[in-house]
Design brief:
Blueprint lengths: L9 H4 L41 H62 L8 H18 L4 E2 L11 E7 L9 E6 L1 E2 L9 E6 L3
Parallel strand pairs: 2-5
Antiparallel strand pairs: 1-4, 3-5
Helix pairs in contact: 2-3
């Protein structure tokens, strides 16, 4: 069965058909289509035009850096002050030990002198030892530790340590009858309390 060739589209193949009025230019020419926008030309209106950190961020970073520098300098100054204080304290302790030892040197000298004359004058050794004892007591008093060996005074728990209780009709109850070991110092500077016996009640 014979086939007829397809008739071409008249609107597409007829060059004489005029273009739509909206697409013609004032001179009768059809304007070219608008070019597509390039990707790099796209701009988001919501993004700021500035590049880099904001001025407020720069000021904040500068303030933080300044505070950190001050903190490091303060730590260094504190460490230097601590070391200097430790050195001064050690020097003061050494000087105090030296002064205390120097104060007892005459006591040692007198003890050695008494021992050297013990064979030639045995009777004088007792007086010599007593004099040396008084000298040592005087040194302790000059250092701030006076001697306490009083009897007949009222018992004071801050200054006395009871090592015995005796019955003495001549002593009022609660008074010190005998001092077995002398005490040295007062209140906060007390080296040790005096060991005493105290009179008890009937």
């Amino acid at each position: 069965m014979p086939t007829h060739p397809k008739e071409p589209d008249r609107a597409a193949s007829d060059p004489a058909e005029p273009a739509p009025e909206a697409e013609r230019s004032p001179h009768g020419d059809v304007p070219p289509p608008d070019p597509a926008p390039r990707p790099e030309a796209a701009h988001d209106a919501s993004e700021p035009d500035t590049v880099g950190p904001a001025p407020a961020d720069d000021e904040y970073a500068t303030a933080v850096q300044e505070l950190e520098d001050r903190w490091r300098r303060a730590l260094a100054d504190l460490d230097n002050l601590r070391k200097r204080h430790a050195r001064e304290l050690e020097r003061e302790r050494a000087a105090e030990r030296s002064r205390t030892a120097a104060a007892f040197l005459p006591v040692i000298d007198n003890l050695e002198l008494a021992l050297n004359h013990a064979d030639t004058a045995p009777g004088a050794i007792v007086e010599g030892i007593r004099a040396v004892r008084d000298q040592a007591v005087n040194v302790l008093e000059l250092l701030g530790y006076p001697r306490h060996a009083e009897t007949g005074v009222a018992f004071d728990p801050a200054r006395h340590e009871v090592v015995g209780v005796v019955q003495d009709p001549d002593a009022p109850p609660g008074t010190v009858v005998e001092v077995l070991r002398s005490g040295y110092g007062d209140d906060a500077t007390q080296l040790r309390p005096a060991a005493v016996t105290v009179a008890k009640r009937e």
